[in-house]
Specification:
By secondary structure, this protein is of the alpha+beta class. It contains 8 helices and 9 strands. The chain has a 4-stranded antiparallel sheet with strand order 6-7-8-9, with helices on both faces. The protein has a 3-stranded antiparallel sheet with strand order 2-1-5. It has a two-stranded antiparallel ribbon with strand order 3-4.
Length: 196
């Protein structure tokens, strides 16, 4: 999933100069790498004159291009817990040029035992003031046997949870429809990767 997110980000020239920390600290709801990291339950360690603090990436973003990073702090580490299962990242752009930012981006992770979902993450980008989990959609899958109908139900729930705006890239209704499509596709990939 991280490789998929990194490959979809910007152009090769930008990718060769950019950093993961820069993508995270930008605080953009459309950022690719921070969304993938969020689906992996990543935490960030911030360091400043007053010491250090570690918090979940979900608590790091507080709004459109805003984070909790203080003026005298640096992002020192990104901590990714070891995870099992399958994960996927998908991105929809207006144009298929690499430099175009996401109309909608989605990162999903499933951990299944004998086809039953024991853990799920559905992270949505470009559909709210900050990147969000589709918590109710995750709950749809939890403790259930993963199959096409269950994935579709979770995808529809994720679209209901999205809170997009209309802008030059897409309308609210289009973004919501695309959330359902991308979440379904991403969950299908994640389910396949975890053997569900």
């Amino acid at each position: 999933m991280l490789a998929e997110a990194a490959k979809s980000m910007a152009t090769p020239t930008i990718r060769n100069m950019a950093t993961i920390g820069g993508n995270v600290c930008n605080g953009s709801p459309a950022a690719d790498l921070s969304l993938a990291l969020m689906a992996l339950d990543a935490r960030v360690k911030l360091v400043g004159p007053g010491g250090s603090r570690t918090l979940p990436l979900t608590d790091f973003q507080v709004g459109f291009n805003r984070t909790v990073l203080e003026d005298d702090e640096l992002l020192a580490e990104i901590l990714i817990p070891k995870s099992t299962g399958g994960a996927s990242f998908l991105k929809l752009r207006r144009h298929q040029t690499a430099v175009d930012i996401a109309v909608v981006n989605v990162a999903t992770r499933l951990n299944c035992v004998n086809g039953r979902c024991i853990d799920a993450r559905i992270a949505l980008g470009s559909v709210a003031e900050k990147q969000i989990y589709a918590q109710k959609a995750q709950d749809v899958l939890l403790n259930q046997i993963v199959h096409a109908g269950m994935i579709q139900k979770a995808a529809e729930q994720a679209a209901d949870e999205a809170r997009p705006i209309s802008d030059i890239r897409a309308s609210v209704s289009y973004r919501k429809r695309m959330v359902a499509v991308l979440v379904r596709r991403s969950l299908e990939i994640s389910a396949g990767r975890c053997g569900a």
